[in-house]
Amino acid sequence: MNYKNLALTVYLAAISISCSNEAIDIIDESEQEIPDTTDSFKLVSKITTVGDDLTEHYSVFAYDDSHRMVSYADFGQKYVFEYGDNEKVAKAELYTGVVSSPDNYQRDGEMYFKYLDGKLTYSINGDRTETFKYNLQNQVSEIESKSLTSEYYYTAKYTYENDNISNMQFYNVYSASESETSNLTFILDDKINPYNAIWLNYGFTIDIEFEPYGIYDFFLKHNPIEIYEDGKLKMKAIYEYDSDNYPVSCRVTKYSNTGERSYSVEFTY
Fold first, then answer.
1. Under a CB-based contact definition with an 8 Å cutoff, are residues 35 and 269 in contact?
2. Ramachandran region of residue 26, left (φ > 0), alpha (ψ -120 to 50) or beta?
3. Domain boundaries along the sequence of the chain
4. What are 195-252's pLDDT values in tens digits?
5. H or E, element range at 132
6. Residue 51, Cα to own-chain centre: how many angstroms?
7. Using an 8 Å Cβ cutoff, are 232 and 225 in contact?
């Protein structure tokens, strides 16, 4: 996999452990019938991406009556969560399917999460482990990801300014003779990143490019307006917000060596 072309994706975990023939529906509509806010934060329940060709793609977060996230579903995969005594996500079961049969999903692996003093310190996903380190302000300062079966590993280091991430540095090692470093910098709004509550309240991280950022969204308190990779503009977004300062929609343009792509994103709470 060419991580240089996907440097905006912090987590691309190599997954898959035991499989079974158990099938599940990707979206259980009954799970959606809950209050969509808590006393302190809103729960993002659906992300809809609409391309210029009007093709829609959506992701769904489901919660129980205690406002705990019970599943995340995307077209092609679904995560189902279990909680530990600390009310943080302790286990995630992964189900995958095929595009031609979106309602027939098979169990495809598990993720496990370990905590110390309420902070996520370690996770394992198939043959890949991830170790989390924190600064004195209890903010994630470094993530080291290693494979149990290959030489590849990467380290992501986070720099903070005004209590928010201003820079991410990635060090990818593919082999003893091949490695590379890349840097992301951000221009942020002053509004609320809806994914941040998932990290703060559930202790959960996932290797998905949540729209519109296309990066590791959970640690950012605010929403990126512009993202630069090694000084080159990679993403630009224009948001609309509700009265509580949460984004409800945005227009995104992403830039690469082959051109640019624009689309719209809608947030439902």
1. no
2. alpha
3. 23-166+193-223
4. 888 888 888 776 555 666 555 667 888 999 999 999 999 999 999 999 999 999 999 9
5. strand 128-134
6. 20
7. no
